[in-house]
């Protein structure tokens, strides 16, 4: 057993931090796309759009039912062999695509549950004053469903940030990939992976604060 | 003028009512009474297609439609000509009292926000809640919530306001303020159809009381007549029961 090489660890921090933006960008892009797709899927599920509903069910079943790593390999290594125009797909794009599809499947279900949870009488009230279904969704249901779903969605976002580390298996040098390279050069694996673990931890902890603040804001209308 | 003709509603093979006719003139106030489970609320909900009638014709103001052929646009047009007050208030939980009242004017009628909020404030004054403009439903008492519910219906500027047991969910101490507001509307000759168990309200305010029982409307008459000389056996029985219950 050797003592921790503190100097090495401190020196590693700025190097690894320079890869943090890419990690956050992939997570942010994945989250934005996943939110849009999940809302779409949820609305399809709730309004039981014929045909599309069956597709949504299949989609959700597949992307929840298979590991994210398998999906990433499928998109990055597998799909270009079948769809040759995808040969140019790079690791970052494949990661964002994988995160989007994978997490949208989970998020669709929690958004659907939140929509269904809005009490039915508000729907009737909106219809009774002459709103269309679309207006009802946009003005009454989705704003309230957002509040209900926010804690779960934030958890998925946190999960997504951590899952970007899988991008290194597609050859992307992001936070995890960079750490792997540094460790392989110095043979100080414990130090290197400890530093990266703490960086992830701090990012997630910061996000938990944002989550708390957001939930308080969204709850304002419901306080007695 | 409001006219229902030959309205039928069934759930599966169970016919709730059939061949219901009802007419009212502008400014008329009708109270529908009857035992629970006889389709009073269902009839009310058929008037704005919250329930789709299985047969019959509906006329509200300048709009006439047939239940079996009604299009989406006709239904929207019908709902713009009617307003509904719910038993459980059904306020939009994500909107303040003011926004609840203004919402329909902005989204459905396309009135500019400034103007809509100005009108909504005026309505808040009329329902006695001028100081609660920015309160969310969760912060209001049951009585206050129902008054906002009525305010939202007033804002729709509808031909008729349909009240579905507006005081049945209220704690007793709030019932009077809601009935008071409804009386105020009645005094302003707002056309209304009210389903309620408040016989005193029916007696005081209704131009006509409609008694419903299994299968449809049994009889209708001005309150003085219906309450003192009910013609049908079932009406007599119902009134005996409910008056006895009110005394005890």
From TrEMBL, chain A:
Annotated ABC transmembrane type-1 domain residues: 20-211
This chain belongs to the protein called ABC transporter permease
InterPro entries documented for this protein? AA_ABC_transptr_permease_3TM, ArtM/GltK/GlnP/TcyL/YhdX-like, MetI-like, MetI-like_sf
List the CDD domains hit by this protein, alphabetically: TM_PBP2
Give the UniProt subcellular location, in the record's own words: Cell inner membrane; Cell membrane
Predominant location category: membrane
Write the lineage as a comma-separated list.
Bacteria, Pseudomonadati, Pseudomonadota, Gammaproteobacteria, Oceanospirillales
Please report the organism this UniProt entry assigns to the protein.
Salinicola acroporae
Q: Does the keyword Membrane apply?
A: yes
Q: Does the keyword Zinc apply?
A: no
TM ranges are: 20-43, 55-77, 83-103, 187-210
Swiss-Prot/TrEMBL keywords: Amino-acid transport, Cell membrane, Membrane, Transmembrane, Transmembrane helix, Transport
Q: Which PANTHER family match?
A: L-CYSTINE TRANSPORT SYSTEM PERMEASE PROTEIN TCYL, MEMBRANE COMPONENT OF AMINO ACID ABC TRANSPORTER
Give the bilayer topology: Multi-pass membrane protein
Pfam families per UniProt: BPD_transp_1
The entry sums up its family as follows: Belongs to the binding-protein-dependent transport system permease family. HisMQ subfamily.
UniProtKB/TrEMBL annotation, chain B:
**Localization per Swiss-Prot or TrEMBL:** Cell inner membrane
The answer on whether this UniProt entry bears the keyword Aminoacyl-tRNA synthetase reads no
Q: How does it sit in the membrane?
A: Peripheral membrane protein
ABC transporter domain residues: 2-239
Sorted keywords for this record are: ATP-binding, Nucleotide-binding, Transport
PROSITE patterns documented for this protein: ABC_TRANSPORTER_1 (PS00211), ABC_TRANSPORTER_2 (PS50893)
Q: Which residues cross the membrane?
A: none
Pfam families xrefs: ABC_tran (PF00005)
- Which InterPro entries is this protein grouped with? AAA+_ATPase, ABC_ATPase_HisP-typ, ABC_transporter-like_ATP-bd, ABC_transporter-like_CS, MetN_ABC_transporter-like, P-loop_NTPase
What SUPFAM superfamilies does the record tag this protein with?
P-loop containing nucleoside triphosphate hydrolases
The UniProt entry lists the main location of this chain as membrane
Which CDD domains does the UniProt entry name for this protein? ABC_HisP_GlnQ (cd03262)
Q: Which GO terms describe its molecular function?
A: ATP binding
Keyword Nucleus among record annotations: no
Which family would the database say this protein is a member of?
Belongs to the ABC transporter superfamily.
Q: What is this protein called?
A: Amino acid ABC transporter ATP-binding protein
- Which species is this record about? Salinicola lusitanus
Give the organism's phylogenetic lineage: Bacteria, Pseudomonadati, Pseudomonadota, Gammaproteobacteria, Oceanospirillales
